[in-house]
Amino acid sequence: MQDRFLTGEALPPIMPASSYLTGRLAHRVLSGSQEGTTGMTTDAEASAPNPTSRRGLFKAAAVSGATVALGFPAVVRAQTPVKWRIQTAWPAGTAGYTQFQKYCASVKEISEGKLLFQPFPENGVVGTFEMFDAVKGGVLDAKHCFSNYWPGQMPVSAFLSSYPLALDRPDQWETWYYELGGLQIARKAYRAHNMFFVGPIQHDLNLIHSKVPIRSFEEFKGKKIRFPGGMISEIFSYAGVSTVILPGGEVYQALDRGLLDASDYTGPAVNYNLHFGDVAKYIIMGPPSTPCLHQPVDLMDLTVNMAKWTALSKHLQEIVIAVTRQHSWDQYAYIQKENIAAWDKFKAQGVQVIRLSEDDIQKFRRHAIPMWFKWAKKDPLAKEAFVSQLAFMKSINVGYVPDSMLVDIDGKTKLTL
Questions:
Q1: Which of 172, 212, 221, 405 has the highest CB neighbour count under 10 A?
Q2: 8 A C-beta contact, residue 141 and residue 354
């Protein structure tokens, strides 16, 4: 696809800078400060309060006026903007890709043209499952992708997004990342691979679209189903599923040709955009208490090549962090709205929603919890992430996992790390 900033087409305003940026960050954007042209923004620096006074803004305006009189704007205008090539996992033409394009446009607006994100859809430069190495090696400058796609490169990625029957609300994951150490764990993991983890990005739960009815835990046995790999695939393999790994853009063809019996992917809006309802007439969900048993909060993230990140001025780093967090909730809210219409569209296609029972959920839980512990033992960061998440799940505030549940498949042997 032809990129809008390359064609010179005007990009629509997304939100005024004051809506995204406050305090010290707003002062830097409005004043054009170039403080910290190298060096990485820490979490403490990004969140440190430093309100900008009205008097300070008037001073900045006065200084700017003086600069105009001296003729310096010609120098500023001559500065070449920083351009990044960024690929998303969202296929073109989906609600997710629409939000990704808006995100890239907002970076240009908020940075006042100093930083440009050139957007590419799924497979726009490299294959979806090649994006990790592409960013690491500098083929791409950044990736906007699902956080759990990299269990082979980083076992901890199994704990950077939701997994079966664990934390299952967007606010819980936001709390874990920004208040319980998750952001630091993710950044440490990616730093070892020459990348900087900017932050998590919310969107939706995941659905299973099936060509055949699956009405119980037992009926998963023998089915060939697309899953993202890692811990999730292993848990479903215990139910007798033959798991397949495919990017979202290839699911329709695989279902249509009979290469799959069913496929997990994202939520109703994006899956409707991908025409899953044309080839799979059943959607498999959990009971109302657990609508999605395997990935209730399917997180994405923005991850940047480390050399590209450290080359940014500090105020541009802070803009990327702030706009990415805003994008996370903008994307989430937009997709939830689109989901409402998508359910009616699926119904009009004759798609039937099948809900598993509470007993089925308990059977999956019996296999899921031992798998949590297995994956936590794969490396130190995976263990660190899981230990903090387990403590959160056991807290009175959440209360999902009493000690009596932490047993192996036999129902007796206590699980330990």
A1: 172
A2: no
Q: What is the dihedral of CA 149, 152, 156, 162, to 10 degrees?
A: 30
Instruction: State pLDDT tens for residues 77-86.
Output: 558 999 999 9
Asked if 409 and 367 touch (Cβ cutoff 8 Å), the reply is yes
| Prediction pTM value | 0.82
Other Cβ atoms closer than 10 A to 221 = 12
DSSP string, 327-359: HHHHHHHHHHHHHHHHHHHHHHTT-EEEE--HH
- Three-class DSSP category at 415: coil
358-404 residue pLDDT tens: 999 999 999 999 999 999 999 999 999 999 999 999 999 999 999 99
The DSSP secondary-structure symbol of 248 reads G
- Measured at the alpha carbon of residue 277, what is the angle toward residues 232 and 344, in degrees to the nearest 5? 105
Lowest mean pLDDT among 22-26, 94-98, 118-122, 246-250: 22-26
Compute the C-alpha angle 381/385/387, nearest 5°: 115
pLDDT at 79: 80
Amino acid at 369: I
Residues 151, 230 contacting (CB under 8 angstroms) = yes
